[in-house]
Write a sequence for this structure.
């Protein structure tokens, strides 16, 4: 658990945390913010109610069997034959089997109906987002017919409220799964196969998504932020993302940019508007506008940024950013530059 931001294993911490996340909040299927999640939530309640009912019936029956008066058989004695015993046994068995089949039938029908209603919600699109899962972060693209108007960011999906969105899912290495419980169920991202998901957010807010298919060492640190805005705020966000990275505004930032462009960083990261154009690691063009770094492992701020660059392997052991070895004086300038990339 070294470097983990929150340890659920510490006594007294996990339980309230689990209780809180289960009921409402940025990552909860019981606090739906969209049509799909609302329907899946209803299905969850049907299953819970059905299973609770069966559980109560079985417990009550057990209680009845334990407390009713018994006819005791003396040692060596024989059980008195009951009139119609076999018939009652058969009838009882038939009733149990019929009850079980009926309940399962209700569950299957409800599940089918919910699934069907989800596909009905998915018949139009106004915004397309491509999400690509990689060990252990997400590339998020907004394609446009005009390539100069397409956007690439990382670990953050922005959506307009009340607008149907088609999310295309791809995987670069192993199987991942995108799960934003407040908006929809899970769907796998599979190498070599295109999957898609439709989202219909019906209220604004910031939600949390998580990779839901074990994908290696840092699977637990593969989260993303989902921000649902008003249409106007979404369009403004898009315009801001379309702009190239701002030029350095002072001497420290200029030195930081020079350091970035002459070091190993450019082998992996791109910053639009500079010669750095690699795309094997998160795009950093508007890094400072994001809420978190390293796929939700740390909240975005200058301190965490410096800590990450100084030793990414301590924060997310095994992740694919190596320790580059930046001297402390250079680190300050580098962070000043990256923090200016609003
Ligand atoms: C060998 C490729 C590679 C090199 C070289 C590299 N990085 Fe990274 N970097 C990555 C990968 C991969 C990630 C994503 C790690 C993760 O979240 O699992 C990352 C993440 C980051 C992030 C967080 C981005 C985000 O949105 O989460 C920052 C900031 C960053 N790197 C800065 C740098 C700087 C500065 C340098 C040069 C000193 C550098 N990187 C060198 C591969 C690299
Ligand atoms: Cu995973």
């Amino acid at each position: 658990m070294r470097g983990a931001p929150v340890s659920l294993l510490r006594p007294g911490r996990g339980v309230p945390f689990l209780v809180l996340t289960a009921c409402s909040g940025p990552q909860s299927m019981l606090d739906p913010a969209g049509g799909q999640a609302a329907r899946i939530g209803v299905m969850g309640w049907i299953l819970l109610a059905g299973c609770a009912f069966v559980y109560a019936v079985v417990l009550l029956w057990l209680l009845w069997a334990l407390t009713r008066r018994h006819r005791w058989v003396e040692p060596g004695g024989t059980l008195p034959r009951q009139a119609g015993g076999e018939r009652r046994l058969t009838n009882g068995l038939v009733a149990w089997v019929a009850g079980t089949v009926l309940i399962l039938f209700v569950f299957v029908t409800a599940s089918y109906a919910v699934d069907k209603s989800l596909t009905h919600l998915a018949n139009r699109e106004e915004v397309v987002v491509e999400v690509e899962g990689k060990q252990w972060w997400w590339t998020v693209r907004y394609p446009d017919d005009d390539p100069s108007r397409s956007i690439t960011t990382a670990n953050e999906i922005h959506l307009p409220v009340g607008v149907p969105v088609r999310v295309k899912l791809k995987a670069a290495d192993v199987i991942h799964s995108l799960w934003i419980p407040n908006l929809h169920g899970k769907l796998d991202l599979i190498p070599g196969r295109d999957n898609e998901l439709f989202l219909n957010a019906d209220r604004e807010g910031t939600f949390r998504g998580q990779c839901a298919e074990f994908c290696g060492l840092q699977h637990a640190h593969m989260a993303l932020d989902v921000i649902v805005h008003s249409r106007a705020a979404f369009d403004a966000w898009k315009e801001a993302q379309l702009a190239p990275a701002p030029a350095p505004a002072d001497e420290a930032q200029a030195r930081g940019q020079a350091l970035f462009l002459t070091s190993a960083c450019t082998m992996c990261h791109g910053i639009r508007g500079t010669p750095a154009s690699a795309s094997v690691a998160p795009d950093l063009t508007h890094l400072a506008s994001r809420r978190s770094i390293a796929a939700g492992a740390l909240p975005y701020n200058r301190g965490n940024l410096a800590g990450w660059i100084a030793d990414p392997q301590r924060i997310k052991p095994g992740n694919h950013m190596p320790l580059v070895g930046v001297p402390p004086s250079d680190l300050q300038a580098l962070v000043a530059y990256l923090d200016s990339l609003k």
Notes: Residues 176, 211, 213-215, 219, 222 surround copper (II) ion (ligand 2) (CB under 6 Å). Confidence is low (pLDDT under 50) at residues 1-9. The two ends are 32 Å apart (CA to CA). The first helix runs from residue 14 to 23.
